[in-house]
Amino acid sequence: MSYFVSWSGGKDCCFACYKAISEGYKIRQLLNLRFKGSSHSVEKNLLRFQAECIGVPLVQKEASWENYERDFKETVRPLVSTDVQGIIFGDIFCEEFQEQKHKEWAEKVCGELGLKAIEPLWGMKPGDIFQAFLAAGFEAIIISVKSDLIDEEWLGRKLDKAFLNYLARKKLNACGELGEYHTLVVNGPLFRKKIHILESKHVKSGKYSQLEIPKYK
């Protein structure tokens, strides 16, 4: 049986995919629903390039906040076949939320599609996920930070223990579950080829400072 992966290009979905594969799950496709007007999603061509470097097909579709569930189902339903059993998500239980809405939503929607929701990271502490991601050999760069919480100097830098310590000093969620920061994974055990950033620049977008990446190989 095979599975889809809900994919953003960042560390959590990538590590969830990695853990699922290590537990015997076979991955068929990466699913990327892009919010219209989103200021911190990975540029669509770069995301496609990332999928090529991993070697797994990517399906992309634009979605809206208001109709996300409908758009999600419309994207997934035509892809489901008899050998597809479920979707892997990178959701993390976040104490700041005091709720389980992400997991409940995934289980509800997958159930309506006749699929299982697989949550490899659920129940793990954010700090443990961060460190396990690095220990597994993944490399990620910081591509977006909330300007009032995290210094812009971190943009473009690799995710590392220095950044984890910085987040701890500021009492921020280690995995950025409240939107503190976003990442792009560029290398690791899932990758056939490493992504090299050739050119980048910092740009402001509302409450966020972002890394614009026009050239890469």
Structure description:
About 35% of the residues are buried. This protein folds into two domains: about 1-120, HUPs (Rossmann fold, 3-Layer(aba) Sandwich); about 125-215, putative n-type atp pyrophosphatase, domain 2. It is built from six helices and nine strands; from the N terminus they run βαβαβαβαβαβαβββ. It has a five-stranded parallel beta sheet with strand order 3-2-1-4-5, with helices on both faces. A four-stranded antiparallel beta sheet has the order 7-6-9-8, with no helix packed on it. The chain is an alpha/beta fold and about 220 residues long. Helix 2 links the parallel strand 2 (about 25-35) and strand 3. The termini are far apart.
Work out the helicity level: 25-40%
What is the count of DSSP helices, taking H or I runs of 4+ residues?
6
* CATH topology category name of the largest domain: Rossmann fold
Roughly how many Å apart are the termini?
33 Å
Q: State the shape.
A: globular
Summarize the helix and strand pattern as letters.
EHEHEHEHEHEHEEE
Q: What is the overall pLDDT average?
A: 93
Proportion of β residues?
Answer: 25-35%
Number of domain modules: 2
In total, how many beta strands? 9
CATH class of the largest domain: Alpha Beta
The biggest sheet amounts to: 5 strands, parallel
Oligomer: single chain
- The secondary-structure class comes to alpha/beta
CATH arch. level architecture of the largest domain: 3-Layer(aba) Sandwich
Provide the gyration radius in Å.
17 Å
CATH superfamily of the largest domain: HUPs
The spatial strand order of the largest sheet comes to 3-2-1-4-5
Q: Unreliable stretches, pLDDT < 50, 5 or more residues?
A: none
